[in-house]
Design brief:
about 220 residues; mainly alpha; 2 domains; globular; disordered C terminus; transmembrane; DUF1397; membrane; 27 kDa hemolymph protein-like; transmembrane helix
Length: about 220
């Protein structure tokens, strides 16, 4: 029930079809920044959606998960701060440089990265962006999240423009710093030494959902 209420809350703020229409109209005029500025003003309302969701499920969580609930809110803050930096200029750049097309072209590859990195944590062995794993920030999950990061960025780097991969990697790193996994090496650091860095289970759903949502919105 809490999940349904959360989805209704988010949909009341963001209509995918409407955003696509606005983007299509703004892109030829070079006014993408105005579209994202409009939606970034709704950030406080989106935070309220998350707060209501986490408050509702609080009774269903054990003590460890309750601690991580606060981290989920921190991750939400980080995502919104990143996406809406300078009133949406960063996300406008992502769109203007072919970010959505890159994501949609690599959609299956990204899902494969997700399967490879996180299937072992799922009861049926098939991770889904609609299923949220337990709120844990243990080292093994952090390592798996980093494996996902390295895999996804490697795929996005195959796109024609480097900007989409650069922005998504910055997004991973930005969110990582808002979780307990920040005490471990980042993927950017470990990638240089042939290792894999660390991230958080809670970030997987947030980041991957956002990543594919960006592609879905811009898939004309």
């Amino acid at each position: 029930e809490a999940k349904k209420d959360f989805e209704v809350c988010v949909k009341s703020l963001v209509d995918i079809a409407e955003i696509k229409k606005e983007i299509n109209e703004a892109k030829p005029k070079g006014d993408l920044d105005m579209v994202f500025k409009k939606y970034c003003k709704k950030s406080p309302d989106f935070k309220d959606c998350v707060l209501n969701f986490t408050s509702t499920i609080d009774v269903c969580l054990d003590e460890g998960e309750k601690d991580s609930k606060k981290i989920l809110q921190s991750v939400t803050e980080a995502l919104l701060s990143f996406v809406c930096h300078d009133e949406g200029d960063r996300i406008a750049l992502f769109y203007s440089e072919g970010g959505p097309d890159c994501l949609m072209d690599k959609k299956e590859a990204i899902q494969h990265c997700l399967n490879t990195s996180f299937s072992k944590y799922m009861p049926n062995g098939e991770p889904s962006l609609s299923s949220l794993p337990a709120f844990k920030f243990e080292e093994d999950q952090c390592k798996s999240m980093s494996e996902l990061q390295v895999c996804v960025i490697a795929e996005l780097e195959k796109c024609g423009e480097p900007t989409p991969a650069n922005i998504i990697e910055s997004l991973f790193e930005f969110v990582r710093r808002s979780t307990p996994c920040s005490k471990f090496q980042s993927a950017q650091t470990r990638k240089k030494s042939s290792g894999v860095s660390l991230h958080a289970t809670i970030s997987i759903t947030a980041l991957c959902s956002l990543t594919l949502l960006l592609g879905r919105i811009g898939f004309y």
